[in-house]
């Protein structure tokens, strides 16, 4: 009788459809919950000016005593093409700042002024030089964020545009433009995100925890530009009244270049000149002059003086 009843149940179309429907619903619930789990990373992501460059790095990111370090090569590739190794020391240059670092020294010198920092430049395996990038925000005029829980580092230049938006309701930030994509982080209503771009109804955003991913564009409201992009446009200026011939000056080492640049700044400020023409009648392709030009341009600009070469 039991076997007969079982066969009769299977032959009942309605009951069979209900049974199949329940199985499908259970499968969808299990699958959805699995996809909604936050993707736990076993590596640190690096986002520079709204781009994830993690896979482009030549060397690993090092976290040491709560200080985040990047290698000399990766800083050169993604932050500072003018970074320079002079003996055992390193010189970095941004738009207005020249920073001088010594190996295993808990200080750095910015435009001639020394400040104490938590970390220090050091050599890792295979003589790789690492710089304490989290301590160099002032050197590069950058915003720096590190989130240990989500394993994200976000670096954003103050010269880049920053636009923010607010979430209309709870949602998940996705790895790709798909609801079935991995979940990077769960966001709450009224959370603020950095808006990067939009495409096909999706918005590319960065969360306050440094997750770079996608949410539906329709979920964003209250767009606000917090920082406009600064265009580095070259301007034509009149022939400077103040001229400085450095042809005979010793500019081979940084300490000599710094001393000469500070002297030029002092003379220009005293004479109330806002521009200076620097004359160099030797080989302008020589490495020492190239370094002088880079460093003088930045340091003079920070003092409100335009350098003309």
Short characterization:
The protein has 309 residues and is an alpha+beta fold. It has helices spanning 2-11, 13-36, 72-78, 137-140, 254-270, 287-302, and strands at residues 45-48, 51-52, 62-64, 67-71, 84-86, 89-93, 98-102, 107-110, 113-116, 122-123, 129-131, 142-147, 152-157, 162-167, 171-174, 183-187, 192-199, 202-206, 212-216, 220-227, 242-245, 275-279, 306-308.
Please provide a written account of the structure.
The chain is α+β, with helices and mostly antiparallel strands and 309 residues long. The chain folds into three domains: 45-145, Copper Amine Oxidase, Chain A, domain 1 (2-Layer Sandwich); 161-227, SH3 Domains (SH3 type barrels, Roll); 242-308, no CATH class. The chain contains six helices and 23 strands. The strands form six sheets. The protein has a five-stranded antiparallel β-sheet with strand order 5-6-7-8-9. It has a five-stranded antiparallel β-sheet with strand order 19-18-17-14-20, with no helix packed on it. It starts with a helix and ends with a strand. Residues 1-8 have low confidence and may be disordered.
